[in-house]
Structures are given as C-alpha cells and as structure tokens.
Amino acid sequence: MKRLRQDEIEFLAHPERFTFDYFKANTLDPLPQAAALGIADEELLNYYDNRYHKDSRFVLRLDPNDGHYTDLEEWVAGAAYRVVGERMRDVEAFRKVAEEFTAFRVRSVNALHPYPESQKIQILKKIALELQMQPAMIDEIAYLFSVGSSVFAMELFTRLAESGRLKEFTGHLSRSDTKLSRLATQPMLLYTLWDHQKIALEAWLKSGGKGILEMATATGKTMVGLAAAQKLFTLYGSLRVLVLAHSRALLDQWRREAIEKLGFVGDPNGDYKIPLSYGNTFVIEFNTLQTVYKNPGAYATDLLIVDEVHHGAGLQFRKALDLPCRWKMGLSATVEGAERGQVLDRHLGKTVYTFTLKEAREQGIVPDFKLYVHKTFLDIAEDEEFREISERINRLLNQINANDPRLIGVLSGHKFNRFESLADFVKLMRGSRYSENEVPEEWQKLIGLIYRRRLIIHRSAPKMEQAIDLVKQLGNQKKCVVFSMDIDTCERIYGSVKGSVNAYRVHSGLRQDDVKRTLTAFRNCTTGVLIAPKMLDEGIDVPDAEIGINVASAKTKLQFVQRMGRILRNRPDKKPMFHHFVALPRNFVAAEDSFSYQNDLAWIQDIALKLGIALELYDPENSEILGLEKQSEEVVRSYYKTRDCILTDDFGTINIRNIVDSIRGEARKRLIKLLEPRSGAITDEQWLSLLRRAYGDDPMNNVSSLRWPLIISGRDPKTLRSLLLVGKWDVQTSSLPVRPLEIPTIDIPEYTADATDRRVAELIAALKFGKDRGEQDRTAQKLMDIGSPAVEPLISELTSTDKRTKVRIIRMLGVIKDQRSVYPLAGCLRDPDREIRKSAADALGTIGDPRARLALMKAQRDRDPAVKAAVKRALGKLREGH
Which run of H or of E encompasses 532? Predict the structure, then answer.
C-alpha cells in the first residue's frame, strides 16, 4: 500500500485549507497588493509546472480540482490590472488596454509554457532581436520576475507599450507552435557586444580570420569567440567549430555559455564531450589540448578557438594548434598582453587586438575594486625540521664564506669572493660539474639543504588564521572565493569555516559530477564561500562573487590577475575586494628569503600601478614582520653594492639601469622634480603616489619592477633622484643635468614565459645537433643556468633522443634538482642501456627526493655492478637526507 506524503495526510484531514477562499483570506489579503500578487503568481507557476511539465517538486497549496486555480487566475488578473495601472501612472489609460493586457498575458503563457525557464528567456530575446530591439530588456525583467508569471508579463507589457513595439512583439509571439519551436532551436547571438568586443571581432576578421585576442579577465573574450562563430555561420550557412582548452571545467563553461548566449538547445550542466548542434549545419565541439595534440589530423574543423592560449605554447600542446582548419582564434587574458611569443605567432597568427584590465576599469567594463595586501608568515608543516635546516644553512654559509674566499673567487671568475646570496652559490654549484676545480664536501651539503628548504617553502602556504577570520567575517554577507595552495589546505579551510558560513569546495580530488554540482550550487546561492586550489585560476566564472581571498602563492602575474578576475564581473552595486597574502618564513635565511620576499612585494606593486588601483596594507603594524622586511632591504642593498646586477634563481636577473630607462620622457622628468623638495624615508604608499603623479594620464602598461630602485636607494629621496638621473634619455629630456650616482648601478629585465620557452627550445636544438663537445658543454651549462623553466622540455627529450644526449640530459636534470624530474628519471632506471641506468641513479641521488626510494630499491637487483654501485650511493644519500 502506498504511503501518503505529509501534504496528502493534511489534505485528507483539512480539505478546507486547500481552497482558494482559504488561501486568499489567510495568505493574500494580509499582504500589500504587489507582495500578494508575487506569492499568487508563484503558486500559479507551480501549478503550470505540475500541469504542463509533470514537475511535482513543488507541493501545491490548492486542490487542483473544483476550479480553485481558475479562481486564482482571475484574482491574479485583477490584481495585475491594478498594479499595471499604477505602474503606467494612469489607471484610466490602463482600463482602456486591460483587454489587450489580458490577451498578451494569455498569449505569453500559452506560447512559452512548453519550454523550460532558460529557453523562455531565449525565445523572448530572439523575438526582440528580430525586431531590432535591445535583448538586454528581457534579461532585466527576468532578473526581477519569473518568466511566464503575471508580474513578468505586466512589466514586459508596460515596457513594450511605452516603446510603441507592443503590437509587433505580440504578433511574433503569436506565430504557430511550429514556427516558435523552430525559433527556439535557432542559434542567435543573444547579447549585444560591447564596443571593445566589436573592435576585437572586427580586427580578427580583417586579419583573415587568424590571430590572437589578448583580453583581460572579465572583459568577455568568450563572447567574442561565440560572436565570430555566429558571424561565420551567417555568412556561409554551415560551420563546424572546435573549442580547445587545457581544462575540462573551462570547456564545460564554454558549452554552457554557447547555450546561454547563442541559444543552442542543450542541458547547460551537460558534459563538454556532448557537442551542440543546430540541424547539423552549425556544430560546436569541445576538447582538451591534452587529447588533440596526440593526433591533430583527426580533429579537422572550420573554426578553431583556443582559450587560455598560452598553454598551447608548450612543446607538446602546440601540435594541437596545427589541426586542419580554415580559421583560427587564440584567446588569452594577461596584464598587458605580454605572454605570447613566436610559437603562438607561428601557429595561430600574431596578436591582432589587446584590451587590458586597466582599460576595462576606465571604460566601466569591470568595477573599481580594492586590493588589500596581508603580510604574514608561512605556515610550515615541517616546522622543527625547517628551523633546523635554516640554522644549518646559515652556519654552513658563514663557514664557506670564512674558509673558501679564494675558491669562490676562482669559480666566480673573480667577480666576488663571498656569497651574499644563495642564488650565486646555486649558480656556481651548477657550473662546478663542468669545472676542473673540486668543491668541498661542505658545499655539497649546503646545496642539498638549500633544495630541501626550497621544497618545503614551495609546499607551504601563508598562515591560515587571518584568511579563516576573513571568511567567517565576510562569508555571511557576500559571496567569497578563496584560492588555496593545494587540496590539503583547501580541506583545512573548508573544515574550519563550514560550521560558520555557507561553504563549498572544489578540487581535483573530487568526482567531476560533484565539482559541477558544487559550482552550480555556489552560483545559485546569495552568500557563502567557495574554496579551491588551482581550478578557478583560468576561465571558470563565478559572476556575482564579490570578495577574493588569495592564500596561495601566485607563481606568475598572469595567475594573480586571473584570480582577481574571478571577482571582477560587473554587476549592479558590486564593490569587489581582493585580499592577497604575501608570506615569508619566520626562520629567515637572509641570503635567500630577502630577495624572493622583495620581489613578491615588487610585482604586487607593479600590478597596482598597471591597473590604476590603490594598494592597502591590512595589518601595517606587525613589528616582527616589519623588522624582517627592514633586514631584507638592507641585505639587498648590501648585495647590490658589490655586484653589477642582482642574480636570482626564481625571477631572473635584476638590472636597475633597465628599470630606470623604462621610465620614459616627461614622466621621468616629472618624477625627478617631485623628488627634489622631499626629505625623509619614502614609504611604499608615497612611492606609488609619486609614480602616478609623474605619469599623470599616460598609461603604465609597460612599467616593471619600479619598487626596486626605491629599495636600492635606501628609500632616500636624494639617492633615488641621483639614480633616476643616470641612464638613457628620450630626446626631449636630454637637457637634464646628470649628477654622479651615489651608489653603483644595476639592471632588471623581467623574463617572460614565452622568451624563456623560445630560448630553451633553441638551446635544446643546439644540445642535440652541436658541432663539437665543447659547444654542447656550453649549451648544457646555459640550460642549467635557466633552471626550472628548462625542466619539462628536457624531460620530453628523454624519450626521443640519442643515447649520448640522453645521458647528458639526465645529468643536467640531476644538477637542476627539480622534483618534476624524479619520476621520469626513475623510469630511466629500467632503460636497456647500462650507462643511462647508472646516470639516472646518480641523478636521483643528487636530487635527494624521497619519492625515488622505491624505484631505487627495485633497481638494487640490477645485474650491472656499476649500476648497482650507483643505486647504492643514491640510497645512501637519501638516508642521509642529502
């Protein structure tokens, strides 16, 4: 026997409570007219869904029999007449059109009821477009009221009557069911392009349907891609489109936006692997770069769109860009369009349009926002071990500087005889493999400790307490997005806040279906927090999120700006804020941490300058951090006084002269004059203000690393002014007097990913095809100097090169000591060639990553004595923690 639901039991006990009269007396009459109309309308919509779509998710308040809903229809019509009359400010005028409104309302309900809510909106927008009206009007009304409701019909009727288009619109709405069904499935661009989007599309079409559009996050580059597809379909009557991206979540979003913005029929929450099709004449397919590059010839299409195109520049992924097609469009979001190089130019065409985030803010495309910087300490999981390693590094560095000045001088080419920076030491150690000079055992120990410490820092995130407090404070008021370091950090934050706020989390450790459901739930909520590691960095939209909290170390400016872009979608009354955490280890190694910390602060300041936004400190009075910050500035200045440049492992070579030269023309002249009357130390905030005043209305898109001259000068206005007077000058400023510089000069070029990628590719080619061994040795040294950016290209060569080069690459990977090399090198332990196996064992021992232990233990069974000896040495180094 069927069990009765609670509402069915209540109906049997009190049937009188399910009549229209009871509903009117107890629910509608006590409310103001407009509020009562809204509730009655919702009940009618529930009834329509039950009747037309067999959707029983909502329990009906009235008995569907005996005419109760007919009575409710009449009450709603009467109430709507009165409200519309007030809306039109002329009740008498409305009485004259009351019959017309009734007909419009009935026509709307009958025409739209077969379609789901989203498709109803699309149909109305397509009718508006047919009549050359702005479709945004439909979105505005749908944002306020449910489509198909009386209040929606009331507002639409009033707007159409006021515009004089009521009769035409009603006529299009009254077409036959067959024609309306055809319109419902017909793709059509449902949004009006912004001016910058029109310019971008026109530039791409003028370039012959090839090229890259570099448009900042939140400025609608997806819309331009869809508009290009619609344009080509309109021109040629048939079109196949393939959208490529590196992320499945990004492809899911592309598919959803094609449905929402082009009017394709499909489930917006469906998988990207399901194509969208209109009569098989307009088809959009979606796929990953990881899939297509393996066999690009199998994915021929008419229009290729590659989103987040900088990923396509990789040595393997770029193969996907050569699939057979007629038109190509690359899309990328950068600060000023810097992340592009010859690889992408060659495969997709040159950049034909650039639109920066600063331009977007100035044109009102994205809202003004605040950037808060939190200075905090790293949360080191292996705290005791990290403290011990830091102390040992400091002791060994002091010991080496005291005992080995002669050897330091010889290996550095007599450029210096002590190590002020660990980056200098690391570079010399990389080169020592190709030197006749033996390095002492203490040097070997120090390099191992440095890499162990760096690995711990790499795996660490800023301390969570401030971020968790922020989430608890803001998560019940706004929608927040938290960018975490990794899955563990994501789960920690989620566990800490889920009892206080409406919390969601997504990461690669969850099932794809769960991720989709979570993102949909977050989109539909009004307040709460979404926590994620890297999944949100590129392309996944959370349009109404207003607060961004970044507790993950952004490794590039692009990554940082993409994270800001997640909260920059323009919405009414939206005031976004972005909180960024800059962290340093409490167990400070001055010769290492000073440079990386100062660089973190420098490029955050660059971004603030380029975007034209204020940069505010959230806790400027933390005395412990201020003390370490002052110490780090002194270390940098001391290093600079004995060098002609600042060498670093992670962000290139810093050259102050180049930075000074980048401040061009009148801006530099004004800056020097602004500094002349000043005295006392210049703060970061004052330096930002001076730079903005110097540039005035001139764009600052190409400024870079302008905080470094401030640090090198000791924040002294006189010294800073002297520094600015040295360097190349534009013709119009050559008359300025040049005074002797009171401190030595340095240079600071900022390496871009694409420039490094090109250089690595050239060097690998030289390594493989060099004329003699000496040339190949020099090439190997250059690749090792590049370090981490060369690792993946070198790894990819392990499977496709000759034995001699393979051995050389294995040894180079051992010198670079990047953890990404561990598993590929472990695979080389099974190579048929004994020398390759031996070299791999030696390299794994040098790297010292414990993940190699299992592979090395298995390799102890190797039959070759030399290989077994190398394996034994490697395991010994792992046990020593080398």
Answer: strand 528-532
